[in-house]
Amino acid sequence: MRATGTALCLTLLLATGLDAQQATRTEPVAAMRDNGTGYHALVGARVVTAPGQVIDNATIVIRNGLIQSVGRNQDAPAGARVWDLTGHTIYAGFIDAHANLGMDSVPEGGDVGPTHWNPQVRAWFSTTDNLQDDEERRQAVRSQGFGTALVVPKQGIFRGMASVVNLGDAGVRDRVLRPDLAQSMGFQRSGDLGDERYPNSAMGVIALMKQTFMDADWYKRAWEAYEASGRAFLPPETSAALEALERVIQGQQPVLFESRREEDYLRGHRVASAFGLTPWFRGSGHEYRLVDVLQGRTDPLIVPVNFPDAPDVDDPEAALNASLAELRHWYLAPANPATLANAGIDFAITTDGLSAIDDFLPNLRIAVARGLSSEDALASLTTTPAGWLGIDRTHGTIEEGKVANLVVSEGDLFTEEATVRDVWVHGVVYGVTRAAQIDPRGTWMISSSDRGGFEAQLRLEGTLNRLRGYIDVAPGGRVEEGVRVDIESASVVTETGRIEVRFDGEFLGFEGTALLAGSVSGDEFYGWSSLPNGASPSFRGTRTEPFEGPSGSTVASEVPEVDLPFIRPAMEYGVSSLPDQPNAVVVRNATVWTQGPQGRLENADLLVRDGQIVEVGTNLNAPGGAVEIDGTGKHVTPGMIDPHIHSGVSSVNETGATIVPEVQMGDVITHNNVWMYRQVAGGLTSAQIKHGSANPIGGEGIVVKMRWGGLPDEIKFEGAARLVKFALGENPKRCCFEGRYPDTRMGTQSIIRDHFMAARDYEREWQRWEATSEGLPPRRDLRMEALLDILNQELLISSHGYRADGYLALVRLAEEFGFRVHTLQHAVEAYKLAPELAESGVAAAVWSDWGAFKIEAYDATKYNARILMEAGVTVSLHSDNAQIASRMNWEAGKLLRTGLTEEQALTTVTINAARVLAIDDRVGSLERGKDADFVVWSGNPLSQFTRAEQTWIDGRRYFSLEEDAARREQMQHERQQLIQAVLAVSEDDQNGGRRGRGTEQ
Amino acid sequence: MITTTSERHIMTSGRTRLRAVARSITAIGAVLALAVVVAPSPSAAQVRMTVPTQSEPIALRGATIHTVTNGVIENGTIVFDNGVITAVGADVTIPSGARVIDVSGKHIYPGMVDAYTTVGISEIGAVDMSNDVREVGDFNPNIRAELGVNAESRHIGTSRSAGVLTALTTPAGGLISGMSSAMALEGWTWEEMSLEGAAALNVNWPDPNPRRRGFGGFGGFGQNQGERPTYAERVQQLKDFFAEARAYRDAVEAGEEVLTDSRYDAMIPALNGDIPVVVAANGIAQINDAITWATAEGLRLVIRGGNDAIHVADRLVAEQIPVILTSTMAAPGRAHEGYDGAYRRAADLYEAGVKFAISGGSGALYTDRLGYEAGVAVAFGLPEEEAVKAVTINAAEFMGLDDRVGSLEPGKQATLLITTGTPIDMTSNIEQAYIQGRELDMNDIQKHFFEKYMIKIQQRLRIVM
User: Fold this and answer.
1) Residues of chain B with C-beta less than 8 angstroms from the C-beta of A863
2) Side-chain half-sphere exposure of B68, counting CA atoms within 13 A
3) Cβ contact (<8 Å) for A678 and B339?
């Protein structure tokens, strides 16, 4: 039987030799030299030399920081200090590939020295140059078994360079193994840092990443051109940040993206692919949702073990409120490492993200209990990160010639509640937990003849660092007839071989706590006590019965088995895969609203093949095996299109600057968006996700199809036109911080105009340089290029606004620059400009009946669409609202009361909406060759009493009432099982169990 | 076609012109036709005239009459005089001297009643000075909405065009927001419009879990989040206020000489059960706790909001407590409820046997959506006639107005709609409305802009030509 450790957690410094004098060391020894031999033999232990490779009763010889030999049953060499580690297990020292330490105070960037204009760009920051001692966190990480770490700066977007260091107590100069190995990057908006400057949105962050990589490339070429010219003109600016990125853009230095959600991983990967970078990823713990994506990719992936707390289901209303998304993540997060391992995906595990570092080993064991093999766990902490960090020749296994980094544990670290005894770093031992020198467990008979003394039976059991038990006292009588109380606490004082026990004195007739302490020597007990009445009798006793408990407590999974099939998105209504595309689909005998030249046909058929519309007509021949839909009594329309929503992206407004056409909503789509399901359920098949209205010139929107179950890139409407948000009137004026230009409608027009001119200047500068190659090469400026795209009608203006004055000014401004405003959005007063818009060919997307929610919306009229249509303006509806987007047919229905015909009304959510988005060649009507996006309705789609029964996109059925009902049943079944699982675990909690621990802020 | 006297022609000329434009343009679909049809008229600027009170008996003949309380009468006639219905039926004697209007092929419904709106006291959402909805402080039973109703509000006209003829204009905020006033949406002044100045007392039930996502019932007290009182404290404040009000009433009734208190005075009809107490509550605990409280206080309780009322249905049925739903054409409360979580609320309550009404719930700006809020429930399982009741007789009954409005019965006010079909579906049109027998000018600001800017199109096209 073997002790597993003590309650005393030490960071004893046993290290010697840290101040050794060597000819290869620059720093003189200041006081007395400390020349320990550095010659050790660790004998008797079970040694796991590498994942899956074990030598029992092995001897490891360490000399001068390296492993001199390792083998079975070898004698310790003479002269070596012998460490008898019988009963212990030794692993290679762990490697934390994303450690948050040593960077306590990251200096402010910004315009301080030749760094970078943007304070979020700190690529110049070197962890090697700036490594802090950070003793507390370093010891905490080391005590979990780590001897090596990649220290990663964590502030900003370009965060600086991460370095590999050892976690010994040597001075900073002696600890760096691989200086400035990788550029650390994060998706951090300035708002997260309490700032309002650009970039302050998810898409602004990515735009700045792209621009900065381009600038790094330009920077190199600009300096080369300057030198090559013989310094014939003024030099370019000096930027340590851009200089630091040179190796990154050449793919020689990795970029290490920290992801906080699964989307961050996808975004980082896109940026890295676009610029030919070498990406590494710090995962978010949601990687189990991306297994299909990650399979086959070899980019280093470092995952945390910060598992979420259980959702609150303490009362029935709370349980009703608990979402499937949070319940599922609670259940699946601890199995994240196992899921990756089972899929054959390599990963490293980090302490990063834990609110308390000493939760690391307990959480790692939960991951193992949830299916991660010990071998994979060890590989993720040793060989895998060693390879990625380029230290595998020296680190990661226990082999002759490797650096003597070891973890000595009193048991199996991965499967048992075992404690780390020592961590060796570069041949120096750091004690973590000392074994108890006594084991007091068992049953003791003790008695005292002193005044106030009594006879008692003391029972101690449990683990040595969490003793429990009871005491039977026989006040003046026999123990069997006395009373029993559970002891309040019992602990071993390691250094002195003493135990201390506390219990409630009430049953002795005292009010207060009784203390009993004693020295244990074999089976003999010599004790004394302090009772609440002031008496302090001494006791003697003997062990009458040894403790026959489990030798180490194995960690088992606490959660009941719940079968949770893979779904995407990982939330309510998620699906296991995208729907199939049948070869052919035919809807029979329906009222078909083609919204094209064929008009509305009664008793008609719609034929679809391979995702495209073939024909609308009567008695169509369908190929064999076609999916047949009986449309009797039903109506069929084109899938509806909403030119203006904001759901489905991680940010809406880039408020950090006034003119931001370079930011792209397509960079920040999230598929974890239950609104998409609701929208497809309401017959919506395409939409534009727009930038917000904080800027006179905002970002570029993204047109998507409602492909529920797809990843962000799969949702995009491939080949769709590009549209950019402009905003006029109140919103860009009142945004965002004190003193931001503009503050008037005139200023809004003026700053737009000024930027159009700037884009022309930019174009001329490029033309001049391309013709002459004289002077500095111009840099590629994403903002200016987006503006040029606007002037060239490659990026179409889609402008938010209300009042007629601003719209007219914008239309005229575009005409002055020789192009056309494509579409107005909201366009509450567009009716006042109907003839002008018709003449200029400007379309409008309007609301059915919004108005008067602010002063510039006060002249709203439901007849807006009607008036525009009468004047010949292309007019559609839009929602600007996730819920309304899920019922656009009713919005169109509202127009019937303004006198539009039914087919006219439906154009506003079908073909005209497609025209507003310039995707009418693909969708918006049921015509041959168009995408098979259509809706089957229970009746007239414009009636309030009608609902969508099926929604098809690309000839795939994304929604039907039947599938919806089945999903609901499955979802409620999962929720109930998961709620029961949470309740089962909380019951365990009351018995000393635990939930998942550690949350990331 | 409704025939009108020449006098009414003058007042409703805008409407008639509009209809002519609508008919011609949409039929032809060609812009050029405009020049022929629309005569430029300086009176295009006239918006929503207020009409005189009923001066002669009127009989509407030949319509399908939806009485709501007594079934549907095909080819029926409804007669009203001095603003009050005198006869409804298939075989009705039309009094001599009555103006008879043939409405064959049309439908007649009672005017819709919006049980919860701010029409008249809120004009432009983001313009603070145009809003008189929320008074300072937690306890404002003395606030009576009618006193702030602007008879010229643009939203009155658009609400009427959408079939809403009676509005329970209601203040908001605090624990006791004040009194809803029942307003007929026709009249020169609030005084002329008011049916009931103190129709119902409004209470906002506290939020038991302010940290949690969900349906907060109240807000606005205490600027400092750190000093937010607990749920229990908020409930106790409410109980204390009612206890003080009751003591005040008892003292006054006992003839004690007490200092007057406007707030406690205003509470007396609610304490005596003379008017309903409408409690805004959405969550399960909120609704349950509100019922427990109101039962102990002996109040006439109406729950407003009721998002989770289905989870309290048994108790609502057992205790005969009605619910005014405020969110039917809205987002579901929880992701797992389904895309139709809100759409289904009314049908679910109906099946469970809970009495309910549906309100616009979106404030003054969108009172004109009331019919749609009811119509959506039909698509998701509520029988159509029940949806109509939810915005007519049920709303009137809960708010103590069913002796005057909400159905077509002799003795009730002639507040009704002439339509081409059900007023809760957009595929039908509301053509004419009467309030207390007054034949309304159906123009409103939005139709006015339509008319005016169609003229602009015509003028520009002439220049082009």
Assistant:
1) 446-447, 449-450
2) 30
3) yes
Measured in angstroms, the CA of B433 and the nearest CA of chain A are apart by 15
Upstream peptide bond of A742 is cis (omega within 30 degrees of 0):
yes
Residue-wise over A149-167: b if at least 16 C-beta within 10 A, else e? Answer: bbbbbbbbbbbbbbbbbbb
Could you report the per-residue pLDDT of B101-123, keeping only the tens digit for each?
Answer: 999 999 999 999 999 999 999 99
Beta strands B72-81 and B430-435 are unpaired
Query: How far apart (Å, rounded) are the C-alpha atoms in residues A778 and A780?
Result: 7
Q: What percent of chain B has pLDDT over 90?
A: 82
Residue numbers in B near A852 (CB within 8 A): 123-125, 154-155, 365
Chain A nearest CA to B366, separation (Å): 8
pLDDT tens digits for range A574-632: 999 999 999 999 999 999 999 999 999 999 999 999 999 999 999 999 999 999 999 99
Nearest-CB residue to A896 (from B339, B427, B453):
B427
Is pLDDT above 50 for B84?
yes
Kindly tell me if the per-residue pLDDT of A336 is higher than 70. yes
Q: Dihedral angle at the C-alpha atoms of B309, B310, B314, B315, nearest 10 degrees?
A: -10
Q: Taking a C-beta distance cutoff of 8 angstroms, is the pair A848, A895 a contact? A: yes
Mutate which of B282, B427, B461 to disrupt the A interface (most A C-beta within 10 Å)? B427
- Please tell me the CATH superfamily of domain A640-922, with its number: Metal-dependent hydrolases (3.20.20.140)
Domain ranges of chain B: 6-107+439-464, 112-405
Q: Which residue has the tokens 């296994």?
A: A397
Q: Which is the CATH superfamily of the domain at A1-22+36-93+396-434?
A: Urease, subunit C, domain 1 (2.30.40.10)
Residues B426, A890: C-beta atoms closer than 8 Å: yes
pLDDT at B220: 37
| CB-based contact B212 A972, cutoff 8 Å | no
CATH 1.10.3470, domain B6-107+439-464, yes or no: no
Report the residue from A851, A870, A887 with minimal CB separation from B457.
Answer: A870
pTM comes to 0.90
**CATH node for A442-546:** 2.40.128.120
Residues of A in contact with B386 (CB under 8 A): none
What CATH superfamily classification does B112-405 receive? Metal-dependent hydrolases (3.20.20.140)
User: What letter does residue A203 receive in the DSSP assignment?
Assistant: H
Of A323, A571, A942, the CB nearest to B426: A942
So what's the ipTM on this one? 0.90
Burial track A455-466 (b if 16+ CB lie within 10 A, e otherwise): bbbbbbeebbbe
Q: Which residues of A touch B390 (CB under 8 A)?
A: none
Task: Tell me the average pLDDT across A104-121.
Answer: 72
pLDDT tens for each residue of A677-709:
999 999 999 999 999 999 999 999 999 999 999
